[in-house]
Amino acid sequence: MFATLPSKAPLAAAALVLSGCLSYGDPNLAEPTRLAALDVGTTTIDDVHQSFGQPHQVQENPDGRTWDYYGVSTRISPLGLIPYAGFVVGGDHVTYDGLRLSFDENDRLENYVEIPEEKHYQLTLVTVGDAFTRSYGVRSIRAEMERLGLPFENKAARNVTAAIDRYVD
To answer: How far is the C-alpha of 56 from the C-alpha of 43, rounded, in Å?
Structure first.
């Protein structure tokens, strides 16, 4: 009798699914109409929250604060599907950009800069090492939302903060 080999269709389907893309944050940060609405000296922190939502990172400065927003997309490398070796050579193709907004002590927009798009390859070993990220980013976002009396979205903060910690330089 002839021995039959198992069908490769399930393996091919799994490779297609696993090599998909994931996105975090806001992919439309640099949309011209959104940026045109930012008026230095006039736009308030509440205006920015209404337009862009909860910030992805918050830093307090002596004379105000900075809010960062990111758009991060990842595509899993098919090299990660190689048994055993995939753990070493596999990884993610990462693309990200962002927007940094600085506010004065009265919560008025002082300036903003676009964080230019960057692309790099993140090895699986590095990603696994970053799996236990600190929760400082989430706590600072929560404190900022509480300070402003705005709703805090815990799941969004955790997902985006983990992606930023893992992929953004």
So the answer is: 19
Q: What is the pLDDT of residues 30-46, one digit of tens each?
A: 788 888 999 999 999 99
Provide the token pair at 86: 């995939």
The answer to whether the predicted template modeling score (pTM) of the entire model surpasses 0.90 is no
User: For residue 136, what are the CA distances in angstroms to 99, 133, 168?
Assistant: 20, 9, 16
Question: Which long-range contacts (C-beta less than 8 Å, at least 24 apart) are formed by 132-136?
Answer: 133/161, 133/162, 133/165, 133/166, 134/165, 135/161
Plot region of 155 (φ>0 → left; ψ -120 to 50 → alpha; else → beta):
alpha
What whole-number distance in Å separates Cα of residue 72 and Cα of residue 95?
6
Instruction: Choose among 131, 132, 135, 128: nearest CA to 154.
Output: 135
Q: Are 140 and 102 in contact (CB under 8 A)?
A: no
Share of the chain above pLDDT 70, in %: 77
Contacts by residues 65-68 (CB-CB < 8 Å, ≥ 24 positions apart): 65/102, 65/103, 65/107, 65/144, 66/100, 66/101, 66/102, 66/103, 67/100, 67/101, 67/103, 67/144, 68/98, 68/99, 68/100, 68/101, 68/115
